Amino acid sequence: MSENTLRILYVEDNPLVREITCELLSQPAREVLAVSSAEEALQVFKPGAFDVVLTDVSLPAMSGLDMARRILKLAPTTAIIIATGYVLHIDVSYMGPHVRVIEKPFDASQIESLLNELCSGPRSG
Asked: Which end of the chain is more exposed for a tag (fewer CB within 10 A), N or C?
């Protein structure tokens, strides 16, 4: 794996949305690992292993927000993008400067803009 490879952990319980979004995220110099639950994401997450966690807010057992909080306790500088299909009535700024919300459905330019914003500096876990 190259030092310039962007490593993305993608958490989405809907198989069709997961497949389409993985295609959207897949580009040279990127590695995308897609999982279907917050619990599965927490099993594979290790500090420094991923540059970005992109998660749906509504997951079957543990929510994307709760998972994000746990990840940030392990690795506070991890970039996290929380995707929601409805208006999120919570200000995620309390979670830190590396957390953003994107509304679904999002397009390639929206996700690329967020990835560039969050991952333009030096990467560390």
From this structure: N
Strands 52-56 and 30-35, by their bridges, are unpaired
pTM, 2 dp? 0.91
Query: Dihedral (C-alpha) 49, 99, 88, 61: value to the nearest 10 degrees?
Result: 20
For 6-119, which CATH class?
alpha beta
Residues 6+ apart with CB under 8 A from 56: 11, 12, 13, 14, 17, 64, 83, 84, 104
Instruction: For residue range 62-71, list pLDDT tens digits in order.
Output: 999 999 999 9
Note whether 69 and 45 are within 8 A (CB): no
Q: How far is CA 65 from its chain centroid?
A: 11
Nearest Cα to Cα of residue 57 among 16, 96, 93, 103: 103
Residue 21 CB contacts under 8 Å (≥ 6 apart), including other chains: 10, 12, 34, 54
> Edge to edge, what strands does the sheet with 52-56 contain?
30-35, 6-11, 52-56, 79-84, 99-103
